[in-house]
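ok, trying the design again with the full structure, not the truncated one.
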C-alpha cells in the first residue's frame, strides 16, 4: 500500500529500517538512546512524508549523534545552537519536517536561550529533549536538570542548584505543545512523538532517558514495571486522571491545588480531574506535579494549535513585501524615502 501527499503524488511505503542509515550505532550498551532511535525511525516511517522532507538537527552530547543514524538530511551543529539552526532551516524551506534531538545539558544550559526563543516564536519544529539528568558525553557532571544534592565529578559534595523543570520552562515560554514520555515505553513514545510531528507549531517532547553509565536508574521509579503504576499518571484527553497498580487512585482538585485521593469509601471517579489538554492553567499545574509527592504526568499535557506558526507568518510577510514593493530595484529599496544627497556648500 502507498500513501499520498496533498498533491496526490504517490509515496513509497516506508518501514522503520528505511530511516536507518548505514552508520554503526555507537552508544554505551544499554543506553536509552537506542530505544529512542528506534521510536523516532518508526514514527517517521509512518508519518506519510518522504525521507528527503526530514531534517534532523542536533547540538553536542550523546544524543547529538542522531543525524548520523537517520537516513534523512541532517546537521550536527555546535553546542546549544540546534534551535537557531533549525529556525534558519525552517524559514529557508517551510515545507521541510524539521526535528531537533538533543539532551538536557545542550538544550537547557548553553542552549537555553536559543531553546526559549524558538519556543516563544512558535517555529514549526519538533524538539525531542532527552533528559537523563547528567552530562554523559563529558563523563558525568551534573546538568541543569540534576536534583539538589546530586553528587557528581563536578559536585563532589552535592549540587546546590535547583533543577530546571523542562516542561514548566517550555510552557512559560509559550510552547503550544508539550508532552512527556519514557525511553523504554515504545507505545507511548510512538503515540506522543507522532502527535508532536503532526503539530503545526513548536512542539516539545521530554523523554525520561536512562544513562546507565553515569546516572543509572534515575527514572526507574517511572519506568519499571513494579514502580511505574504508582508513580506516573497517563493523561488522556477527556478522561479522569486515574493511576495506581489497581487503578484505585486519582487526582482531585482541592481549592487552588491538586491532591491525591484513594478511590472507594465514598470517593468516585466523578470527583477526579478530567484531563483537558487545551486548558493552559491545568497544564501549568500538571507540570509542577513532582515525584514522590505526586505521580508524574505522562503523555500530552498541553496542545493548542490555534496560533499560526512563526514560519507561516514570516512567509505571509514576505509575500506582502513582494506585493508592496513590486517593480522596485535593490538600489531603490536601499535608498528608500529617508536618504538625501549632500551637495556643495552654498556661499
Amino acid at each position: 500500500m502507498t500513501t499520498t501527499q496533498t498533491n496526490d503524488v504517490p509515496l513509497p511505503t516506508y518501514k522503520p529500517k528505511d530511516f536507518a542509515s548505514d552508520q554503526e550505532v555507537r552508544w554505551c550498551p544499554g543506553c536509552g538512546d537506542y530505544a529512542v532511535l528506534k521510536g523516532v525511525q518508526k514514527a517517521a516511517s509512518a508519518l506519510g512524508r518522504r525521507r528527503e522532507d526530514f531534517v534532523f538537527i542536533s547540538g553536542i552530547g550523546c544524543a547529538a549523534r542522531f543525524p548520523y543514524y537517520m537516513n534523512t538530511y541532517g546537521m550536527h551543529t555546535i553546542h546549544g545552537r540546534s534551535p537557531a539552526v533549525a529556525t534558519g532551516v525552517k524559514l529557508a524551506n517551510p515545507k521541510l519536517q524539521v526535528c531537533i534531538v538533543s539532551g538536557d545539558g545542550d538544550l537547557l544550559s548553553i542552549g537555553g536561550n536559543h531553546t526559549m526563543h524558538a519556543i516563544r516564536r512558535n517555529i514549526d519544529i519538533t524538539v525531542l529533549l532527552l533528559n537523563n539528568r547528567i552530562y554523559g558525553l563529558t563523563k558525568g557532571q551534573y546538568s541543569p536538570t540534576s536534583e539538589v544534592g546530586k553528587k557528581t565529578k563536578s559536585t563532589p559534595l552535592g549540587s546546590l542548584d535547583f533543577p530546571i523543570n523542562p516542561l514548566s520552562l517550555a510552557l512559560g515560554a509559550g510552547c503550544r505543545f508539550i508532552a512527556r514520555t519514557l525511553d523504554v515505553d515504545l507505545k507511548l513514545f510512538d503515540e506522543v512523538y507522532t502527535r508532536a510531528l503532526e503539530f503545526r507549531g513548536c512542539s516539545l517532547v521530554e523523554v525520561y532517558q536512562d544513562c546507565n553509565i553515569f546516572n543509572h536508574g534515575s527514572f526507574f521509579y517511572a519506568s519499571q514495571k513494579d514502580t511505574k503504576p504508582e508513580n506516573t499518571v497517563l493523561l488522556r484527553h477527556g478522561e479522569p486522571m486515574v493511576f495506581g497498580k489497581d487503578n484505585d487512585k486519582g487526582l482531585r482538585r482541592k481549592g487552588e491545588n491538586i491532591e491525591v485521593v484513594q478511590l472507594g469509601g465514598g470517593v468516585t471517579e466523578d470527583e477526579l480531574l478530567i484531563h483537558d489538554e487545551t486548558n493552559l492553567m491545568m497544564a501549568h499545574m500538571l507540570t509542577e506535579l513532582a515525584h514522590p509527592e505526586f505521580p508524574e504526568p505522562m503523555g500530552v499535557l498541553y496542545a493548542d494549535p490555534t496560533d499560526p506558526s512563526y514560519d507561516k507568518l514570516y512567509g505571509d510577510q514576505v509575500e506582502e513585501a513582494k506585493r508592496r514593493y513590486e517593480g522596485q530595484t535593490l538600489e531603490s529599496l536601499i535608498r528608500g524615502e529617508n536618504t538625501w544627497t549632500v551637495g556643495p556648500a552654498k556661499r
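Keeping the full-length input from now on. Residues 310-324 form the longest helix (15 residues).
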